[in-house]
């Protein structure tokens, strides 16, 4: 990914909340790579939401840098998943890292539901 001007503050440094967007985009792409689109999941009654996040800002990412979000699925439980995510440059320098817990909810009631088996299986394969 490329850091755009809109991702930064007036000093050209990535605004802290935008790291969350980078991580969210990567988790969405992981679902897509596993064959699941979020709008299709929602239409079938399932949504994923961030329940908990521990984030560590190590170095400032800057305008126009080319960076990679590395996402590792660490655990899949009944209604939740845990990810380790980091934003890195081409040399492997980590700018930001996060431990993210995501819950699976019923799209209408927003109550926890078990992650469908097909999703668990494919995410375990690609994660």
What does this structure look like?
The chain is α+β, with helices and mostly antiparallel strands. The chain has a single domain, classed as Hotdog Thioesterase (Thiol Ester Dehydrase, Chain A), CATH 3.10.129.10. It has three helices and four strands. It has a four-stranded antiparallel β-sheet. Strand 2 and strand 3 form a beta hairpin. The longest helix is centred in the N-terminal third of the chain and has 16 residues. The chain is elongated, with a radius of gyration of 15 Å. The mean pLDDT is 96.
Strand content: 25-35%
Query: What helical percentage do the residues reach?
Result: 25-40%
What is the CATH superfamily?
A: Hotdog Thioesterase
Q: What is the tally of beta strands?
A: 4
Largest sheet: 4 strands, antiparallel
Number of helices: 3
The main sheet orders its strands as 1-4-3-2
Structural class: alpha+beta
Our count of domains comes out at: 1
The first-level CATH class is given as: Alpha Beta
Which overall shape is indicated by the principal axes computed on the Cα atoms? elongated
If you compute it from the alpha carbons, what radius of gyration comes out, rounded to the nearest whole angstrom? 15 Å
Low-confidence stretches are none
- Secondary-structure element order, as H and E? HHEEEEH
Mean pLDDT: 96
Secondary-structure arrangement, i.e. CATH architecture = Roll
Report the span from N to C terminus: 19 Å
As for the CATH topology, it is: Thiol Ester Dehydrase, Chain A
């Amino acid at each position: 990914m490329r850091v755009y001007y809109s991702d930064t503050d007036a000093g050209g440094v990535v605004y802290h909340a935008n790291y969350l967007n980078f991580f969210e985009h990567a988790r969405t792409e992981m679902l897509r790579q596993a064959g699941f689109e979020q709008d299709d999941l929602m239409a079938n009654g399932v949504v994923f939401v961030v329940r908990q996040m521990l984030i560590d800002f190590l170095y400032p990412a800057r305008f126009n840098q080319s960076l990679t979000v590395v996402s590792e699925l660490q655990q899949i439980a009944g209604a939740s998943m845990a990810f380790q995510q980091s934003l890195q440059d081409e040399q492997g320098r980590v700018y930001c890292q996060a431990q993210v817990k995501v819950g699976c909810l019923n799209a209408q009631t927003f109550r926890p539901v078990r992650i469908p088996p097909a999703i668990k299986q494919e995410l375990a394969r690609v994660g």
